[in-house]
Please model this.
Amino acid sequence: MYSGLKKGLKFLIVVIIIGYLIPNNISSPILQNNISKIDPESFWCYPWGESGVHKGIDIFSEKGTAVLSPVSGFVVKKGYGTIAGNYVYMIGPKWRTYYFAHLDTLFVKEYKYVNRGDTIGKVGDTGNAAGKPPHLHYAIETLLPYFWLYDKQAFEGWKKIFYLNPVKYLNFHENN
Model:
């Protein structure tokens, strides 16, 4: 009975370790010369409309600007939500998920692999961004908590152990 449990646990640990060993070459989801404004203060801003806390950043650009995959990974989900508008959720190295919202157009399929730099959609103003300047809502989440990010001062600060500030990861693609 415990033999199967031990094997399963060992397998899970190996899978988690392999996920952390995959290099995480991360880039900005929008080429630098196409960005009109980045709102770095929007990360963990409260109050933020229906969302409560804004768990990502807003990158402003012209409507229709290409949104590029910042990492190689798998598209886990895409769709439309009343707040997010058109969105894409993908998983990449280090067990991190990448969330892109308010997209005008989507170019990816669920459960398909995308390479870093592939166009996944276009900047838009869908969902609760309707009538506002076009922008990309960009969030990075870790599936395994980073306990050192706990913030007892912030509203819902315990959730920060799962969210990474995307501003720190805006390494721009080489062709800028």
The first strand starts at residue 35 and ends at 39.
